[in-house]
Amino acid sequence: MSRSFYGESAGGSKSTEAPLVPDFVTPTDLTTTTLSTGNNIYNSKTLDELFSNWRGNAVHKYQIYKSELETQKSAVANEYESLRKHVSEQILTDEYENTELLVPTGVLALGAFFSGRVLSNPKNWKASTSFTSRLLTSIPSRVLLPWTLAGAVFSQLTPVTWSHSLRSVESDILPEEWVSQYHQLRDSLHTEGLGRKWRELNDDLNGYLQQRVRSGREFLINRQNNKS
């Protein structure tokens, strides 16, 4: 059974001259003040201390939360200002791209992103089992294709902003170890893979053109000699 806050006499109808007070307040703790109207005001030092502690704790908590909120607001404002300054000084450095190309490029990139979502959505291919449909609707394609198309638009229309953005991501977001491995892999593919194939193709094409030019010269020389 719950404890009665005002003692056993709180529920009775018996009249009393003293006011009902919590049972942990002793009679000697009460003081009485009589107003000019004849009304009596009873005061308890114990209750005064109790309510004062409650009020002090509430004010203290409020000050802590208020200070924390102000600190967080200041931190957010500083982070925003730092980000804005970094973007304006490190990424958006090309005035022509900023004023003429950035907005339309953003619109086109958004369209390219949603085009990638449409192309990689299995519902748009229905029951097709072709290689193209399986490739475009695979999980990697559904994740990467929209962002790849949007990035391709940005890289072609705003190349300066795009290159600065990539450099900022590599230096400020990605771990240095990942960036180093990525550059090594890219350089290896460029040197040993596509780069080597491209150089071989250039060498073959250059040799073929030189051979054709030599044959043309010999043909002209022989024809001139025959006329003589």
Give the topology, please:
Blueprint: E1 30-34, E2 40-44, H1 45-91, H2 95-119, H3 131-136, H4 139-157, H5 159-172, H6 176-227
Antiparallel strand pairs: 1-2
Helix pairs in contact: 2-4, 4-5
Radius of gyration: 42 Å
**End-to-end C-alpha gap:** 134 Å
- What coarse outline follows from CA principal-axis ratios? elongated
Largest sheet: 2 strands, antiparallel
Backbone structural class: mainly alpha
Helix content: over 70%
Q: How many extended strands?
A: 2
Mean pLDDT: 82
Strand order of the largest sheet: 1-2
The helix/strand series, from N terminus to C terminus, equals EEHHHHHH
Q: Which spans of ≥5 residues are poorly predicted at pLDDT below 50?
A: 12-16
Strand content: under 5%
What does this structure look like?
With 228 residues, the protein is mainly alpha-helical. Among the domains are: 76 residues; 82 residues, no CATH class. 71% of the residues lie in helices and 4% in strands. It has 6 helices and 2 strands; from the N terminus they run ββαααααα. A two-stranded antiparallel sheet has the order 1-2. β1 and β2 form a beta hairpin. α2 runs antiparallel to α4. The longest helix has 52 residues. The termini are far apart. About 2% of the residues have low confidence.
